[in-house]
Write a structure and sequence with these properties.
heterodimer, A: about 270 residues, mainly alpha, 11 helices, about 80% helix, about 0% strand, B: about 400 residues, alpha/beta, 6-stranded mixed beta sheet, 5-stranded mixed beta sheet, 8 helices, about 25% helix
Chain lengths: ~270, ~400
């Protein structure tokens, strides 16, 4: 009986963690649209190209890395897989993930003046990095995947971005709370994200990693995501572990992150 | 019908000794903080259409209570029920993103209040017109002055016709013309039966607007009731803090006389031009009065925008403790002031054979809006009256009376 109650409670938390952010997406769509527009204006204000930079910036980032790896270092993969395809299809989602995590850590501080002394739904704020980066990278990624792999690839890429954004949702809520209350995390985030990038098979294939380091791939959910991305878009090998490991982590975060955020809410208004 | 219901609502702020204590507490659920009580648990019911004023000294918990009702603070205990759409004007310039333009902030504020873009499109011209900021709306609000911020905030907060309006001292900032306009909008809300929760240090305004007043003291309700009774008790408390005798006013002030033709500064609907006080043949700022003999005359000249309804004049006489002993206004005594085409008028009020008893008194003059509530201008401590008397009567005022005697038995 006790176990059943506990299971029911966990199921309730899971459902709330999934449903509530999505409900906010619908009920607060006007507010989120204003905030996203504001983000775009802030990032491109005073530039000649304006909104074009939203798409050009990630494209140029990828171009620079491609130039380094393909032309300067002349990285080549064994077999039929073209390095540039593999690299582009892995790097763009990573840039999106990295931007969402970085922004989530600071999003509550960034908008403190809005919610601390006026009526403002704080709960929508962690959705902002997801929506903003999802919009920017989603478009670029779908276009590039379409160019590299055809229309089916574009559809697959769009679905992958959607799935990745959904997966990142609880992580964004968790990072938002931790970023506000443990500010050291914001300092260490650039280093941590760089290390995760190196430990994720984006600029190399999993097989190219030294034997002793391959265990890290199992502990790294982003390595699983890369395997799934390349499986969908490039028909590369994947294992069931690539699916259930991120899924388990997601369920774990789904149940806890939303609850933690709700518990933090009164503190959030008083923290800054 | 209850609009706002508070049951055992209290607020304590948590104080943490170490940076990580707060997150440890959130994660584990075990308290790791000291508390400072801002508001002790209170019960309160505010009916629909009621205008409730909050008074109290700084730190009494007024702003905390307003924030709890508005929803920007979470109560540490108790339950708050609010029935209807709330709009709050809590602190100057809050709720704005300083990098965004005035226009973008209006859309952001509207979206926060649950309005769709189409609804905000419809309301936008009215907001800009009321705020009087049409030429500044495309500039970031970080370039706005404090007066401009409060104008935009007030226009935004009141444009959506909320069921419940919460205002925390916001009207004390900004120019007189806008403050008056805002005041009229609040009075309009009151007349429309909206619920208003209002916090002000102006006892005159609180008494004039509110149906009920709550006096908060050190985070607890000290008194609730009719405005006149609560304000009288609050004033008595303030007097007691000054040792019962109050503090003598520091200096006598009066507007310097101005030439006959004067223009009003932009944003100022009316102002006093000159106040002259005389007792018998003597005039000046410090006058000797003989009780029951001297006629006290106050000649007041003012200018107002001819386009607005004629302002009202009020005079108060206060004692050394600041407490008002007597007051009057032109409308109280049935005088309808007429202005010339430039909006100027000169009015004299006379207190024949002043019946104050010996002591020191001060005169204050107020130029009020046509409803007699909003002060356009004031000349406080405009004259000091030193009253002496030739009888042994005690007290501060000699009341009119008659004596009679029963016929003696034959």
């Amino acid at each position: 009986m006790l176990g059943q109650n506990r299971l029911q409670r966990i199921a309730c938390h899971l459902w709330a963690g999934f449903k509530e952010p999505l409900r906010l997406l619908v009920t607060q769509r006007s507010l989120l649209a204003v905030l996203i527009r504001r983000d775009m204006q802030v990032r491109t204000s005073g530039t000649v190209l304006g909104g074009i930079w939203m798409l050009a910036q990630p494209a140029l980032q990828v171009l620079a890395l491609w130039f380094l790896l393909d032309f300067v270092l002349r990285v080549r993969f064994p077999g039929q897989v073209a390095f540039v395809d593999y690299f582009l299809l892995g790097m763009l989602p990573w840039l999106m993930v990295s931007e969402i995590i970085s922004r989530s850590l600071s999003v509550l501080s960034e908008f403190g003046e809005l919610y601390q002394r006026s009526v403002f739904p704080v709960r929508v704020l962690p959705l902002l990095p997801i929506l903003f980066s999802g919009l920017v990278y989603g478009v670029v990624y779908t276009l590039i995947a379409g160019l590299l792999t055809g229309p089916a690839g574009a559809l697959g890429a769009a679905l992958l971005v959607l799935a990745l954004l959904l997966w990142l949702m609880p992580l964004a809520y968790l990072m938002a709370v931790l970023g506000l209350f443990v500010r050291d995390l914001r300092q260490i985030a650039p280093f941590a994200l760089t290390m995760i990038l190196y430990l994720t098979p984006i600029m190399y294939m999993p097989d190219m990693l030294p034997e002793g380091l391959r265990a890290f791939l199992v502990l790294n959910p982003f390595a699983d995501w890369m395997a799934l991305i390349h499986a969908v878009l490039q028909d590369m090998a994947w294992s069931s572990g690539n699916l259930w490991r991120p899924l388990l982590l997601w369920l774990l975060l789904l149940a806890s992150a939303w609850k933690l955020f709700l518990r933090s809410e009164p503190h959030i208004r008083e923290e800054l | 019908m209850t609009a706002i219901s508070l049951r055992g609502v209290g607020k304590s702020y948590a104080l943490y000794d170490h940076t990580l204590d707060r997150i440890k507490e959130i994660v584990t659920g075990h308290p790791r903080h000291r508390t400072r009580v801002a508001l002790h648990p209170i019960d309160l019911e505010i009916g629909r259409g009621e205008v409730v004023g909050l008074i109290g000294r700084n730190g009494a918990g007024k702003s905390t209570l307003l924030k709890l009702v508005a929803g920007t603070l979470t109560p540490s205990s108790g339950e708050i029920r609010v029935d209807g759409q709330v709009s709050a004007l809590l602190e100057l310039g809050t709720g704005f993103h300083h990098d965004l333009t005035g226009r973008e902030n209006v859309y952001l504020g509207g979206a926060v209040r649950g309005l769709s873009v189409r609804e905000i499109d419809r309301l936008y011209p009215g907001i800009v017109e009321f705020a009087g900021l049409a030429e500044f709306m495309e500039q970031p609000v970080k370039t706005f002055s404090s007066g401009m911020l409060v104008r935009l905030a007030f226009a935004l907060a009141t444009c959506i016709e909320p069921d419940i309006l919460i205002i925390d001292e916001a009207l004390s900032v900004g120019d007189a013309a806008f403050a008056h306009k805002s005041f009229e909008r609040i009075m309009g809300f009151k007349n429309d039966g909206k619920t208003i929760l209002f916090c002000s240090h102006s006892m005159y305004q609180v008494e004039a607007i509110c149906n009920r007043v709550i006096w908060l003291h050190e985070g607890a309700v000290r008194m609730v009731g009719e405005p006149a009774a609560v304000i009288a008790a609050y004033n008595a408390y303030l007097d007691s803090l000054n040792g019962g005798a109050g503090q003598a006013p520091a200096e006598v002030a009066a507007p310097a006389p101005e030439p006959a033709a004067v223009a009003l500064e932009p944003g100022r609907p009316a102002r006093l031009l000159d106040v002259q006080v005389s007792a018998g043949p003597h005039s000046g700022r410090s006058l000797e009065i003989v009780s029951h003999q001297s006629d006290l005359k106050i000649r007041i000249r003012f200018v107002s925008d001819p386009a607005i309804p004629c302002p009202r004049l009020a005079v108060t006489i206060s004692g050394p403790d600041g407490r008002i002993i007597s007051s009057t206004g032109n409308w109280v005594d049935g005088l309808e002031i007429r202005r010339d085409s430039a909006g100027q008028a000169e009015v004299t009020v006379c207190f024949p054979r002043l019946a104050l008893l010996k002591g020191q008194y001060w005169l204050n003059v107020y130029l009020l809006s046509h409803e007699g509530i909003f002060p356009f201008d004031q000349a406080e401590l405009v004259a000091e009256l030193q009253v002496r008397q030739q009888t042994l009567e005690q007290g501060i005022v000699s009341l009119p009376r008659t004596w009679s005697q029963a016929p003696l038995p034959a």
